[in-house]
Structure formats: structure tokens, C-alpha cells
Specification:
By secondary structure, this protein is of the alpha+beta class. Helix content is 33%, strand content 32%. Strand 4 and strand 5 form a beta hairpin.
Length: 135
């Protein structure tokens, strides 16, 4: 199921939540949403592509941690010049790659700020990218 939910209490912020089956076949939906929201913030074409790749990589990391019939939730928050993406799945207890891994370094280079957490039965990766102010 794919759904977009506006958040009524956010004045200068927008919130979009998409839930798709935890299957690689649905990642194109999340990449497209990432690109559309980044374009709305007037990110450069290079930054849009970087964010699309980062969201794809974060999702790929989480698919390994997801049980077979799980759903992947992607929460996009637009605030000012920043797009924050939180991708999460129910966790089967598997750890996510650490900050010293190549995959994590790639995420950080593409998205800017990256963090993760495995708690309360969910594995989550947060990506935050700010629009380049040198326009």
C-alpha cells in the first residue's frame, strides 16, 4: 500500500509518508518521491541524483534486515532548505552496517547527515540533505 499523508500541524514543514512492500521492486517509487521532493526544494540536478542513490542504498541495507512479508516505510520531511528521509522496516534483529563501512561512507557522501537505529523492533536509517546555498 502506498500512501501520502500531509501533517496538519506543520506550518513551514511538509511530511510525506510512503509505505511499500519490503521488496526491491518497489524502490523506484521511493527514488521518484525523493527526486520530486528534492526538486521542490530546488536542489541541483546532481544533488537530486545523489539523494535518489542514497535513498536506494539505505533501502537496500534495510531490506536485508526485514522479515519476508514486511513493509518498508519512508518518511520524507521537508523543512526550510532541508529534506530529511527516514527509512524503516521491522527488524529481525540483524545489525545495520556500521559507520566505518564503505556503504556507510557512500551514504554520508551522498546525503550529508546519516544516522541509524535498531530499537523497538524497527531498523531505521535517517538521511538529511540541505540545499546548497551557492545558487
Amino acid at each position: 500500500m502506498t500512501q501520502a499523508l500531509p501533517h496538519p500541524e506543520l506550518a513551514d514543514e511538509d511530511l510525506v509518508v510512503l509505505t511499500v512492500p519490503a521488496d526491491g521492486a518497489y524502490l523506484s517509487v521511493l527514488r521518484t518521491a525523493s527526486a520530486g521532493l528534492a526538486a521542490r526544494l530546488h536542489f541541483t540536478l546532481d544533488d537530486i541524483e545523489d539523494l535518489r542513490i542514497a535513498v536506494d542504498e539505505a533501502c537496500a541495507m534495510l531490506l536485508v534486515a526485514a522479515p519476508g512479508d514486511a513493509e518498508l516505510t519512508c518518511r520524507f520531511e521537508v523543512a526550510g532548505e532541508t529534506l530529511t528521509v527516514a527509512v524503516s522496516v521491522p527488524s529481525n534483529g540483524q545489525q545495520l552496517p556500521g559507520a566505518e563501512t564503505f556503504a556507510w561512507m557512500v551514504l554520508t557522501a551522498l546525503a550529508g547527515s546519516v544516522r541509524s537505529d535498531v530499537s523497538a523492533g524497527r531498523a531505521t536509517i535517517w538521511l538529511s540533505k540541505k540545499r546548497d546555498g551557492r545558487r
